Amino acid sequence: MSTLKTLNGNQSIAEAVRQIDPDVVAAYPITPSTAIVETIAKFKADGLITSEFVCPESEHSAMSVCIGASSAGGRVMTATGSQGLALMWEMLYIAAGLRLPIVAAIANRALSAPINIHGDHSDTMGARDSGWIQIYSENCQEAYDNFIQAFRIGEDLKVRTPVFVGLDGFIISHSLEVIQVEDDAKVKKFVGEYKPVYPLLDTSRKMTVGPIDFTDYYFEHKRNQIEGIENAPPVIEAVGKEFGQKFGREYGFFEEYRMDDAELCIVVMSSAAGTCKDAIDELRSDGKRIGLLKPRVFRPFPHEKIAEALKKMKAVAVFDRSSSPGAFGAPLFTEVRSALYDHKERPHIVNYVYGLGGRDIKVEHFKEVALKLEKIAETGKVEEIYGYINLRE
Amino acid sequence: MKKETWKELTIGTINLDAGNSVKNLTGTWRSGKKPQFIEEKCIQCFFCWLYCPHSAILVERDEVKGINYDYCTGCGMCSVECPTKEKAIIMVKEEAKLAEGGAE
Ligand code: SF4
Ligand code: SF4
């Protein structure tokens, strides 16, 4: 039976894990994702899951265990964030290169130095070229829903690619929310039985996993890998639709909020999109034609669809919760701006880095930017392409 | 050896022809020098066999018998490790030749 439960983001992920009951969970606890692992351990101790629960000595080992277990033929998940994800780094590329559909819940957190335990997207954005699919969640409900869908997306035979499901550290991971937890059997049925391809435990077949490639094969294998994530968009779309039919909450590549007749737009992912919606409501009641575009899937980046949604705007502000030092703008901005390049009509587009290390972002900050967008739309002049929000200057 | 296009490869770098490294004739990497085995000086200590990084020391009936030049890269490690006073493996000049097959 579908029930309402009061859970924080970490518990919401753990609840999905309980329902999916994967073959192997290997994880090393790190703030702010610790409670995911802790809750799964409790489920295991209470006999609520049959998963093999492995506590290795580091995140590097945790991802290594996941790779081994997934190669063996199991359905596998882990959870981490920040330095933990950073320590997994070299293994992330191996999971993706071996086309292992591991699912990792990432409680997004800032990277040291300086050390900080709060939420930003530096960790997963740093791993944006590791070959993993990346899905971001606005709230606990989305974290739960995205996590369930992640298995279907990653395990699709055409995709076979690992998936990150991001939830903002503390803001989502530790905030209580009343969420709809779907029926155990229905969730199990939705996710379906896992069918491994080329499992190592199939001893009837002679094969090698992860052999060395020289100059004559590496390039072909990499291209072969890229095909997996490029096959993902129709799968992400179909799974999001089917989820909507089964559970009443449909998902796409991004959410458009009050975009119908908008001339100005704010692009922002994850929890800050919730705050932004309040700002949009207030601005709308002041008669401003402004909307929000909240990307959900960052890899593969839905460049055509985003360009289509934004090309008619007069001015767009992209908000990034990470920085890319020395680059021409932060990660989301460079993607969005590049997506619009081929369109003859395209908006002025500016970038704001916000919320690093968990720095608050409020309704008033979005409203300040809305004023700037209005001015850009009126004058056609962009004074600063790249700026910072709520930073002491 | 015909090489597959990226579309023809098995996903995830999986090699369904395990053990196919025997088709990779690393002997084609040799340039300029090759080891020569001098049987009468050999004390059968097996050091060369142990150290050879390409398993290119030929062994027959538990005795070192020579070199498999299909795989010997001419690295010279066997000769360096050979412990006899007058080496039972010496490195000699070899005309460099471009052979077919193996890795690029
Ligand atoms: S030269 Fe190197 S590869 Fe050749 S037999 Fe000696 S140790 Fe092996
Ligand atoms: S190392 Fe020298 S002596 Fe020992 S087995 Fe090899 S060739 Fe013979």
TrEMBL record, chain A:
Gene3D superfamilies reported in the protein's UniProt record: 3.40.50.920, 3.40.50.970
Protein name, entry field: Pyruvate flavodoxin/ferredoxin oxidoreductase pyrimidine binding domain-containing protein
Chain ranges of the Pyruvate flavodoxin/ferredoxin oxidoreductase pyrimidine binding domain: 16-239
Source species of the chain: marine sediment metagenome
SUPFAM superfamilies assigned to the protein according to its UniProt record, in alphabetical order: Thiamin diphosphate-binding fold (THDP-binding), TK C-terminal domain-like
Keyword terms, alphabetized: Oxidoreductase
MF terms in GO: oxidoreductase activity, acting on the aldehyde or oxo group of donors
Residues of the Pyruvate:ferredoxin oxidoreductase core domain: 262-365
TrEMBL record, chain B:
Annotated InterPro entries: 4Fe4S_Fe-S-bd, 4Fe4S_Fe_S_CS, PorD_KorD
Keyword Metal-binding included in the entry's annotation: yes
Keywords for the protein's UniProt record, in alphabetical order: 4Fe-4S, Iron, Iron-sulfur, Metal-binding, Repeat
Requisite cofactors: [4Fe-4S] cluster
Gene3D superfamilies referenced in this protein's UniProt entry, alphabetically: 3.30.70.20
UniProt key word Iron: yes
Domain 4Fe-4S ferredoxin-type: from-to ranges: 33-61, 62-94
Coiled coil: none
Molecular function (Gene Ontology), one example: metal ion binding
Protein name per UniProt: 4Fe-4S ferredoxin-type domain-containing protein
Organism of derivation: marine sediment metagenome
